[in-house]
Amino acid sequence: MEPTPLPGPRAAAPPLDCPSGLRQPVAASVSTPRYFVPHAASPAEPVPCDAAEVVHVVDAFRLEPAYLGESEWFVCTDVVGQLQLIPGSDRARLPASVQAQLAHHEVAAGRPPRRLAATELFFFSAEMVEHPADAEGFNDPVYLYGTLTGPWPGNTVMRVPGQLTVSRGDVLAGFAHGAQDAFRYVKDAESREAPSAYHALLPGDRAEHLAQGRGLVLTYPAVPAELQAHNFANGAQVANVLHAVLAQLQEDARTHNGPQAIAALDLPVASRAMAIAELEVRGFEVKGDIAIPRPTKGGLVGKLAGWLQSEEVRVPREAPLSEFLELARRVLPMLPGWPTETERTLRAHVLAGTLSPGTPAPRMPPRAPPQ
């Protein structure tokens, strides 16, 4: 199956010659996780981290143990959408608009940022997703193409394009668990839901390596450059990824006698307009909620085409990201062998946020007795 770009891939992103280019040997110029394959034609480059040059915040967390005395870190983007990591001590150097994003998120979240117990992190900007054709299992591999930044912490943080391989369950669980810690932006008049930047913590290595706090990959679906004017909200991209994974699971369940509950799912689409466009490309004419085959040309070829595509199709309804996240949570327990050892090991490194050391717990004033 051909790789599918996420809705509106970044114009500034270098093209990935996938998957054939990934089979070429590549020099080991940067340490990468086991399940990431660097793109042969794109050399690794150092990552500058300048708080004054970032334009949006996409994530905030605390690292345990602290690195160089820093416990709080911000994942930000620069003017072309590349990821940068900024220490909390540089908060005052951030542009005023970025500081405003941080203040809004912290107040809206109402709790301290999550803690990550890790000694090695990677940050991945995902731009395309591919589902291998004719896979033999059910919780099959998924290929994510994009740009990896890391390893971090370290003095040689590099950025390199390539392919990250994970399972379908990894993708569903990553976004389902990460949604509660999404970075929240100011709601605008055009948004049905509060715009947010979502992430997924994905496994870049085997469970025994993850248990050591290494090989963890924080993944952020990329946002088109033209949509980054006010924030880095990537809800549409996440919904598209979740829909693609759920649709593949449903297709396999129907074809290979998989879990009936998955086969019978009422699966919506992330974009009804895109679904209609795809039906029209396949030769359907859409009338309201029904798509019917266009009249075929005469002759034997036309008749055969009409026989093969003679049934009308109902246009799927469109659903918000919150519904896809709920579907992901419902489907995960139905996957054979889920949760895996890798999944259990990975989630153990995400801890609830706590007050910073030395911060006194707030004391509530005594409530006046009822009159």
Q: Descriptors for this entry?
A:
371 residues, alpha+beta, eight-stranded mixed beta sheet, 25% helix
Describe the structure.
The chain is an alpha+beta fold and 371 residues long. The protein has helices spanning 96-109, 168-178, 207-210, 235-255, 260-263, 272-281, 299-308, 321-331, 341-347; strands at residues 4-5, 36-38, 45-46, 56-67, 70-77, 83-87, 115-117, 121-130, 141-152, 158-167, 183-184, 196-197, 200-203, 216-221, 284-287, 290-293, 313-314, 350-351. The strands form 4 sheets. Strands 1, 2, 3, 8, 9, 10, 13 and 14 form an 8-stranded mixed β-sheet that branches. The protein contains 9 helices and 18 strands. It is globular and about 65 Å long. Helix 4 (235-255) packs parallel to helix 8 (321-331). The chain has 2 domains: 4-243 and 337-351, no CATH class; 272-317, no CATH class.
The amount of helix comes to 10-25%
The CA-CA distance between the termini, in Å, is 71 Å
> Main sheet, how many strands, which sense, barrel?
8 strands, mixed
| Helix-strand sequence | EEEEEEHEEEEHEEEHEHHHEEHEHHE
Domain count: the total is 2
- What best-fitting shape do the alpha-carbon axes yield? globular
Mean pLDDT: 84
Oligomer: single chain
Q: Number of helix segments?
A: 9
Number of strands: 18
Strand content: 25-35%
Radius of gyration: 23 Å
The chain-level structural class is alpha+beta
In the predicted model, the low-confidence regions spanning at least 5 consecutive residues are 9-28, 302-308, 358-371
